[in-house]
């Protein structure tokens, strides 16, 4: 009987010897849906509209095949991109040269609605990962949803504090 109890107690202890690896956790950390300045649909103007994703883990996350879409179904698909541990990548709407920190959708018109929209991130199995919405509910002062947060530059940050 004592051996059975010791064996049962030893199992959790041996499991504790192997640290639990972080699950892939990528989140939408900021959205600039209303590009500052004049909107002339130039690459420069379109690239001021963006979504930022942050890898909150200590492990690289392969985003190949992941998608970022709006409420109308306009979708950007990540190709051959790995997000480094604790890193952030900015996905711009317009054209440009992809780097480790900036990716470009190569579009010729805006994606994100300035008044209300939702950016949705899905993994390569089409499973929901995260989303950020703005403008769906307004208080009497016309401010966005109480869970949303905007900084002085008008960037939208999720309800996370």
Q: Quickly give the structural class.
A: mainly beta
| Main sheet makeup | 4 strands, mixed
Low-confidence stretches: 1-22, 138-154
The run of helices and strands is HEHEEEEEEEEEEE
Strands of the widest sheet, in order across it, are 1-2-7-8
State the helical fraction.
10-25%
What's the pLDDT, averaged over the residues?
Answer: 80
N-C termini distance: 51 Å
Radius of gyration: 20 Å
Number of E strands: 12
The rough form would be described as globular
> What is the count of helical runs?
2
Q: Per DSSP, what share of the residues sits in E-state strands of 2 or more residues? A: 25-35%
Structural overview:
There is one protein chain. The chain has 161 residues and is mainly β. Helix content is 12%, strand content 30%. It is built from 2 helices and 12 strands; from the N terminus they run αβαβββββββββββ. A 4-stranded mixed sheet has the order 1-2-7-8, with no helix packed on it. Strands 5-4-9-10 form a 4-stranded antiparallel sheet, with no helix packed on it. Strand 11 and strand 12 (156-157) form a beta hairpin.
Strand and helix map with partners:
Elements: H1 2-16, E1 26-32, H2 43-46, E2 50-55, E3 61-62, E4 67-69, E5 75-77, E6 82-83, E7 88-92, E8 102-104, E9 117-122, E10 128-134, E11 149-150, E12 156-157
Parallel strand pairs: 7-8
Antiparallel strand pairs: 1-2, 2-7, 3-6, 4-5, 4-9, 9-10, 11-12
Short description:
This protein is mostly beta strands.
């Amino acid at each position: 009987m004592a051996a059975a109890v010791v064996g049962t107690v030893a199992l959790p202890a041996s499991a504790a010897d192997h640290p639990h690896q972080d699950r892939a956790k990528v989140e939408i950390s900021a959205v600039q849906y209303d590009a500052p300045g004049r909107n002339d649909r130039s690459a420069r103007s379109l690239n001021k509209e963006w979504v930022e994703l942050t890898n909150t883990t200590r492990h690289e996350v392969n985003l190949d095949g992941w998608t970022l879409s709006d409420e109308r179904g306009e979708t950007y698909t990540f190709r051959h991109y790995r997000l480094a541990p604790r890193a952030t990548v900015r996905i711009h709407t317009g054209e440009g040269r992809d780097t480790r920190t900036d990716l470009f959708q190569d579009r010729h018109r805006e994606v994100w609605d300035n008044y209300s929209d939702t950016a949705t991130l899905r993994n390569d199995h089409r499973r929901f990962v995260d989303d950020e919405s703005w403008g769906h509910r307004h208080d009497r002062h016309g401010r966005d949803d109480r869970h949303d947060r905007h900084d002085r530059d008008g960037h939208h940050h999720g309800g996370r504090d």
